[in-house]
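User: I've been trying to design a sequence by hand for this structure and keep getting stuck. Would you show me what you'd pick, starting by listing the structure so we're on the same page?

Assistant: Good idea, let's start from the same input. This is the structure you sent:
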C-alpha cells in the first residue's frame, strides 16, 4: 500500500469527506443556564437533521452534512450557528466547552424527545445518575472524516485482500495512531484551562482561584479531556487490531455493565458506519465508513467553535498518521491515555514530561519532533498545507500562544463568566450582521441565499445545481422543488412569465380585468414618437423599454418634457429593447407589492437614490460615504445596492442646476435619479402594515389576472388616506427580488423565505 500511496497525486491524497458537529449550551441574558424548551423556531429536535439537542434540553447540537471540502463544512456550520443564535430570543449561545454558571441543586433539564424518544430519554437518565448532570453538559467539537472513494480504490489496487477488509484495516490503523498521538491535539486545540466555581465540587476543590468565579490548577490546558471532564469512570481499552476484536470487546464491556451501549465508550476517536453510526451490528455487517474525532475543545475565540486553519491541520495530521509506520510498543493504550491526562492537566508546565514507547521525553521535545515529521510529510508529498504551519509552530515553541494560555490570562483578569458572556454577545452580533447571508455562497444573489437559509433552518436539503445561474434544488423527504433565482418556481407557468415580461400584454390583460393602468403607445422608430407626441406633449410621461426589469433604461418626466428630451430618452431606452413604451405618468407614490400565492407577503415604498447634505461634502463624497454601508453592495448580493454616478445621474442633477461636485446644504436631500428601483441605489421602506387591505386585494387580483403565483406588482397610489380608491399599476414583475422585503432600509424585516417555502411545500 505504501508504494501505491507514494505514487498518488496530492489532489487525490487530500480528497475526502468532511462533516462537523458542535455542541453548546443556551444561556440566559445574565449567563446562567437556560432551562427553557428547545426553541420551536428551530424545528423539531427529533427530526431536524442539522439542529437538535444533546444530553440536555438546554444543550444545542449542530450537525453539518458531509462535504467534499473542509471549507464547505465549516461554512455550513457557521450558517447553522447564525440561524440558531437568531432564533432563541434573548438567550445566547455559551462559547466555552466547560459549562456556564449552573444551579446548585437546581434543575438541569434532560433532552425531551417525547413518546417516540423513550429509549433516548432512559439513556440520558442513566448518564445523569452515573456521571452527574454537570459533566454531561460539557460541550465540544466532533470532526467526521473519511477518505474519498477514489483514493481508497487507488490504494486498494493490487491488494490481495477483500476491499472491505482492506478499508477496515486502513481506518483501524488511523484510529490506533490517533490514539497514540492524540495528546498533540489536546495541546494545540485545548481551550478549557479553567472551570466556573459552580462546576463539580470534587474537581473545583482541587484547584486554585484565578478569579472569584474561575478555578484552575494554573497548568491545565484542557479540563474537558482530563478526569474532570467527559470520560468513563475507568479507562477502557478495546482491541483495535481488527474490527471483530473491537466489536467483541465493546460487547464485553456492555455485558459487564461497564457501559450501557457503544455511545458510552468515551474514546477520543470512534469508528463509524454510514448505515448506523456507532451501532455494533451495523458495523459488523457493513464495516467502517468514517471516523469521528471527539477530543476537540470548543475554541471560544471562534464563533463556530473551531478555526478553519485548525481543521486543515487536523486533516493533515490524520493523513500523516495513516501513512506512517506504527511502533510495536505493547502497552500503548495505557501510555497514550496517561499522556493525554498529563497534557490536559499539566500542559502549560515548562517541565511537563510524557512517555514515548515506555521512555520519558519532554513534552516540547516530543511535540517538536512530531511537528517536524508532519512538516516533512507535507513537503515530500506536496500536499499544500504550508499555510497552517506558522501558527502551529508558534504554539509548540511558546505555550503562552496556545488557546488555553490566552484564556487563562483573560479569565484571571476578567473572570470566567463575564468574558464568556461578552463573547456570546459578540458572536450574536456577528450572526445578526450576517443574517442575510449564507456562508460560502456570497457569489449567489441575496434572494437565493435567503431562500436557501430558510430551507436549512427547516432542515430541508439544499443542492446548488448551477451556481452561475442561481439554480438550486430543495428537498424535504421525497418532495423536491427546483428553483431559479429564488422566485422562478414550478408554481408559475411559462405563459404567465411571458405575459409579465411583455409590458404591452400585461397592460392589455390588466385592463381586460378592470385594473387601472397608464395610457400609452409602443414606439419602434423616431417617427412613431413624432406622430404620438401631440397626445403626450402636455402631460407628465414615462419612456421605458418594453421588456426589461430592475428599472433599467427608464426615464420619468413628472413635469413633462420637451420633444428633444423625450427623443433622447427614447434613444436610450432603445439600447435595451427594440420597442419602447411611451406612457402617461401616474401621480402618487410608487409601492412594490410582493404577491405570493393568495397573499401580499410584503409592500415597499422605494425611494430613489439620494443623499443628504452636511454642508461640507460634495454629492460625489456623500455617495461614497453612503456606499460604505455594509448593507450596500453590487449584483444583488446585499440588501441594498451601491449608488453609481452615471450619465443618468449627471443628467438628473443638471436639471436641478447641480453637478456631482456640488455641495448640498446641511439637511438638504438631493435625489439622484427619477426611478426608485433598489437596483439603482434606491432606499427600501417597509409599508406592509400601513397599506389598506383594499390595495392588497387589487395586487393579488392583478397577479391572478396573468395567472401568476409569485409576482411583483408596482402600484402608484396618490394618497393612502383618501376615501376614494385611486391607483394605477405600472408594471408586473415575474422575478421579483425578495431580499428588499426581507431586509428593508427602514421598517420591519419580513420572513419572505419562510413564506416561499410554505407555498412550495405546503408547510
Amino acid at each position: 500500500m505504501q508504494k501505491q500511496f507514494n505514487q498518488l497525486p496530492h489532489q487525490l491524497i487530500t480528497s475526502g469527506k468532511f462533516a462537523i458537529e458542535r455542541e453548546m449550551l443556551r444561556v440566559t441574558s445574565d449567563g446562567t443556564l437556560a432551562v427553557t424548551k428547545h426553541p420551536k423556531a428551530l424545528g423539531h429536535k427529533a427530526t431536524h437533521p442539522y439542529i437538535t439537542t444533546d444530553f440536555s434540553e438546554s444543550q444545542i447540537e449542530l450537525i453539518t452534512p458531509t462535504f467534499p471540502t473542509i471549507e464547505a463544512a465549516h461554512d455550513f456550520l457557521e450558517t447553522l450557528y447564525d440561524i440558531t443564535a437568531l432564533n432563541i430570543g434573548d438567550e445566547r449561545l455559551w462559547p466555552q466547552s466547560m459549562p456556564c454558571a449552573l444551579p446548585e441543586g437546581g434543575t438541569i433539564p434532560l433532552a425531551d424527545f417525547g413518546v417516540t424518544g423513550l429509549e433516548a430519554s432512559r439513556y440520558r437518565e442513566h448518564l445523569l445518575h452515573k456521571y452527574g448532570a454537570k459533566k454531561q453538559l460539557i460541550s465540544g467539537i466532533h470532526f467526521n472524516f473519511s477518505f474519498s472513494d477514489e483514493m481508497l480504490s487507488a490504494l486498494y489496487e493490487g491488494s490481495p485482500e477483500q476491499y472491505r477488509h482492506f478499508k477496515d484495516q486502513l481506518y483501524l490503523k488511523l484510529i490506533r495512531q490517533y490514539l497514540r498521538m492524540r495528546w498533540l491535539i489536546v495541546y494545540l486545540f485545548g481551550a478549557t484551562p479553567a472551570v466556573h466555581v459552580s462546576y463539580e465540587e470534587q474537581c473545583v476543590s482541587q484547584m486554585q482561584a484565578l478569579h472569584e468565579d474561575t478555578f484552575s490548577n494554573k497548568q491545565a490546558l484542557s479540563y474537558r479531556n482530563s478526569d474532570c471532564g467527559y470520560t468513563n469512570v475507568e479507562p477502557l481499552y478495546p482491541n483495535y487490531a481488527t474490527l471483530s476484536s473491537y466489536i467483541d470487546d465493546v460487547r464485553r464491556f456492555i455485558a459487564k455493565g461497564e457501559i450501557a451501549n457503544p455511545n458510552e465508550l468515551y474514546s477520543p476517536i470512534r469508528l463509524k458506519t454510514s448505515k448506523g453510526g456507532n451501532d455494533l451490528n451495523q458495523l459488523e455487517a457493513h464495516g467502517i465508513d468514517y471516523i469521528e474525532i471527539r477530543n476537540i475543545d470548543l475554541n471560544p475565540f471562534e464563533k463556530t467553535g473551531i478555526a478553519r486553519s485548525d481543521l486543515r491541520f487536523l486533516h493533515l495530521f490524520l493523513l500523516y498518521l495513516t501513512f506512517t509506520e506504527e511502533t510495536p510498543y505493547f502497552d500503548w493504550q495505557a501510555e497514550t491515555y496517561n499522556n493525554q491526562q498529563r497534557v490536559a492537566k499539566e500542559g502549560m508546565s515548562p517541565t511537563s514530561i510524557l512517555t514515548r514507547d515506555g521512555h520519558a521525553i519532554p513534552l516540547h521535545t516530543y511535540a517538536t519532533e512530531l511537528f517536524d515529521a508532519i512538516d516533512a510529510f507535507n513537503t515530500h508529498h506536496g500536499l499544500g498545507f504550508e499555510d497552517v504551519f506558522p501558527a502551529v509552530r508558534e504554539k509548540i515553541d511558546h505555550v503562552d500562544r496556545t488557546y488555553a494560555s490566552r484564556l487563562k490570562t483573560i479569565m484571571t483578569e476578567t473572570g470566567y463568566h463575564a468574558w464568556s458572556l461578552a463573547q456570546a454577545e459578540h458572536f450574536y452580533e456577528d450572526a445578526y450582521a450576517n443574517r442575510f447571508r449564507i456562508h460560502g455562497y456570497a457569489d449567489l444573489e441575496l434572494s437565493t441565499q435567503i431562500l436557501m437559509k430558510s430551507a436549512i433552518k427547516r432542515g430541508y436539503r439544499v443542492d446548488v445545481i448551477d451556481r452561475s445561474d442561481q439554480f438550486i434544488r430543495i428537498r424535504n423527504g421525497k418532495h423536491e422543488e427546483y428553483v431559479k433565482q429564488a422566485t422562478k418556481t414550478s408554481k408559475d407557468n411559462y405563459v404567465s412569465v411571458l405575459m409579465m415580461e411583455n409590458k404591452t400584454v400585461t397592460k392589455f390583460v390588466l385592463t381586460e380585468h378592470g385594473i387601472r393602468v397608464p395610457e400609452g403607445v409602443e414606439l419602434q422608430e423616431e417617427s412613431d414618437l413624432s406622430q404620438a407626441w401631440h397626445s403626450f406633449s402636455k402631460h407628465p410621461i414615462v419612456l421605458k423599454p418594453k421588456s426589461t426589469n430592475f428599472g433599467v433604461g427608464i426615464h420619468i418626466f413628472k413635469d413633462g418634457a420637451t420633444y428633444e428630451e423625450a427623443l433622447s430618452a427614447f434613444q436610450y431606452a432603445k439600447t435595451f429593447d427594440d420597442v419602447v413604451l411611451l406612457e402617461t405618468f401616474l401621480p402618487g407614490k410608487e409601492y412594490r407589492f410582493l404577491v405570493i400565492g393568495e397573499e401580499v407577503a410584503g409592500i415597499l415604498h422605494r425611494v430613489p437614490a439620494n443623499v443628504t447634505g452636511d454642508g461640507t461634502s460634495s454629492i460625489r463624497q456623500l455617495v461614497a460615504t453612503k456606499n460604505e454601508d455594509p448593507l450596500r453592495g453590487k449584483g444583488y448580493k446585499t440588501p441594498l445596492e451601491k449608488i453609481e454616478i452615471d450619465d443618468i445621474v449627471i443628467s438628473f442633477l443638471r436639471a436641478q442646476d447641480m453637478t456631482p461636485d456640488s455641495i448640498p446644504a446641511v439637511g438638504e436631500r438631493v435625489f439622484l435619479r427619477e426611478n426608485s428601483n433598489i437596483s439603482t441605489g434606491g432606499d427600501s421602506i417597509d409599508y406592509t402594515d400601513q397599506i389598506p387591505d383594499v390595495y392588497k386585494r387589487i395586487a393579488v387580483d392583478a397577479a391572478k389576472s396573468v395567472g401568476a403565483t409569485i409576482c411583483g406588482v408596482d402600484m402608484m397610489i396618490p394618497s393612502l388616506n383618501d376615501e376614494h380608491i385611486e391607483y394605477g399599476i405600472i408594471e408586473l414583475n415575474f422575478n421579483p427580488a425578495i431580499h428588499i422585503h426581507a431586509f428593508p432600509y427602514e421598517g420591519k424585516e419580513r420572513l419572505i423565505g419562510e413564506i416561499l417555502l410554505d407555498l412550495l411545500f405546503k408547510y
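That's my pick for every position. To get oriented when you compare it with your attempt: The two ends are 52 Å apart (CA to CA). The chain has a mean pLDDT of 93.
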